[in-house]
Specification:
α13 packs across α14 and α13 packs parallel to α16. The relative contact order is 0.15. The chain is an alpha+beta fold and 511 residues long. It is 70% helix and 8% strand. The protein starts with a helix and ends in an 11-residue tail after the last helix. It has a 4-stranded antiparallel sheet with strand order 1-2-3-6, with no helix packed on it. The chain has a two-stranded antiparallel ribbon with strand order 4-5. It is globular and about 80 Å long. It folds into 2 domains: 435 residues, Up-down Bundle (Growth Hormone, Chain: A); 63 residues.
């Protein structure tokens, strides 16, 4: 038993490291979305540029199901190991090249086009990676313990995001703000190639999974995995149930807690980027062990209600949570300490003109600090440059939280991470167990990546658009409008899962 567990830990270590690096590669783009919007898109409309960046980010999710079909088929034909070796190299190469792509100012519309193509390659790679890693670990796990062992793979996505945030924070720490803005943002992308190389060296010495090896030796592998997975109406029913009864709800809960929350802190609460990243990083670090807790719990009580409990809690509490988050930086409800207000003016040369930057710093009685920087384009004579009779100005507000407000925000993000661990911890074991070995890679990958790639991946862009649209219309609670998307999707999934997922759903039922 000791040797078996030792082997399992080696399998999990090798699989998890590669999967973690792939998630890191995939999430660096989302973690730097605010910065990238100024590099690869026209800067004259910041909101449109940010939405374009989110749409490019989402494009990587949209193609994940196609990666699941292509690499899932290869995995069921030639094996799990070699397939996710290919996905690792594809992901690493695409991430490295994003870091090398010239900016919009240098090559114009070629810049967003190149980034879009590379983002699509990332999505295809991730579509093949997760199903392979989860299947590989599950096929090494003993019966009755798959929830526990596969939950370690589930931690890799969150750790990938966590490491992306740490790398970004460290890069910012060692560089000045101007250095990071000019070229430092490329460092997290370029570093990827070294991590991928280490993972490749580890993975190339792994053995094929025992269940697949046995099926191949007995001639029981699928001749046409796609046809056997989706061409049979009975089997297709299980694929659809896995999608609409579990995966799509899990997807929106996952991306609300880890990506919409980050976007919300930076673009709605106007929290300083470093502080928002650190708060999310702390919550991720505190919450990640619960993937294993709920994975093991699902071995004891079943996968269904652990996953559905996370969805139900999210449905019922998202709006109160985000209303509380918004109020933490809402200066309209705070009392300013006028004795601590400070105004500073500086000048920065910008082409043939200058930028006059006026920073007004305010401190409130609860410790919140707000800095508003107004940038005005001026001539040498200190006269504002006019357009349509109005000064050329832009304004940026930055908020810093302290004390109990800071701790409360960490707690509110942590609660959302717990929801994620409930829905995500058991899902790999759930998907593996309802499909047989011969079509497992293909069958489990497709619903997972549609649920996460389509329903989850579109969430940041759709929710940001809904909130922006509500703000344009003057709605007082515009900041809550983006939550309708995850709430509605999770509600539909909860109802379908409650009614149709049963304890008798096993791979033995697939024909």
């Amino acid at each position: 038993m000791q040797n078996k567990n030792k082997t399992l830990w080696k399998v999990i270590g090798a699989s998890s490291l590669g999967t973690l690096i792939e998630w890191y590669d995939f999430f660096i783009f989302g973690s730097l979305s605010v910065v990238l919007s100024t590099k690869f898109f026209p800067a004259d409309n910041p909101t449109a540029a940010f939405l374009s960046t989110l749409a490019t980010f989402a494009a990587g999710f949209v193609v994940r199901p196609f990666g699941a079909l292509f690499f899932g088929r290869l995995g069921d034909l030639i094996g799990r190991k070699y397939t996710f070796m290919v996905t690792l190299m594809l992901m690493g190469g695409a991430t490295f090249l994003i870091g090398c792509t010239p900016s919009y100012e240098s090559i114009g519309f070629l810049a967003p086009l190149i980034v879009l193509v590379l983002r699509l390659l990332q999505g295809l790679a991730l579509g093949g990676e997760y199903g392979g890693a989860a299947t590989y670990v599950a096929e090494h796990s003993p019966e009755g313990e798959r929830g526990y062992w596969t939950s370690w793979i589930q931690t890799t996505a969150t750790f990938g995001l966590f490491i992306s945030l740490v790398v970004i924070l460290l890069t910012r720490l060692f560089l000045s703000e101007s250095q990071f803005d000019e070229w430092g943002w490329r460092i997290p992308f370029v570093l990827s190639i070294f991590m991928v190389f280490v993972s490749y060296l580890i993975r190339k010495n792994m053995d094929e999974s025992p269940e697949f090896t046995k099926a191949k030796a007995e001639g029981k592998t699928a001749k046409n995995p796609l046809k056997e997975s989706f061409g049979n109406i009975y089997n297709l029913k299980y694929v659809l149930l896995a999608l609409f009864g579990a995966a799509m709800g899990q997807g929106v809960v996952w991306y609300t807690g880890q990506f919409y929350s980050m976007s919300f802190m930076k673009t709605v609460m106007f929290l300083h980027t470093d502080q928002a990243d650190l708060i999310l990083g702390i919550a991720l670090l505190l919450g990640t062990p619960f993937f294993v807790v709920f994975g093991r719990l699902s071995d004891k009580v079943g996968r269904k209600w652990v996953m559905l409990a996370g969805m139900l809690l999210a449905i019922c509490t998202y709006r109160p949570i985000y209303a509380c988050m918004y109020q933490l930086t809402n200066i309209q409800t705070k009392t300013e300490r006028l004795d601590l207000r400070a105004v500073e003016t500086s000048f920065v040369k910008h082409g043939d003109s200058h930028n006059r930057v006026t920073r007004t710093s305010k401190t409130f009685t609860d410790g919140t600090e707000v800095t508003q920087a107004v940038t005005t384009q001026i001539t040498e004579a200190n006269n504002p440059i006019l357009k349509d009779g109005m000064p050329q100005e832009s304004s940026r507000t930055t908020v810093f939280l302290k004390g109990s407000n800071y701790a409360l925000l960490v707690g509110l993000i942590f609660i959302q991470i717990i929801y994620i661990t409930l829905v995500y911890g058991p899902i790999a074991a759930f998907l593996v167990e309802i499909f047989p070995v011969k079509i497992r890679y293909t069958s489990m990958s497709l619903p997972y990546h549609i649920g996460n790639g389509i329903f989850g991946g579109l969430l940041p862009a759709v929710s940001t658009y809904l909130a922006s649209n509500a703000q344009t219309k003057g709605q007082s609670d515009f900041y809550l409008s983006g939550l309708w998307y995850p709430i509605i999707v999770a509600s539909i999934c909860f109802v379908i899962g409650s009614i149709y997922i049963t304890k008798t759903m096993t791979a033995n039922q697939i024909k």
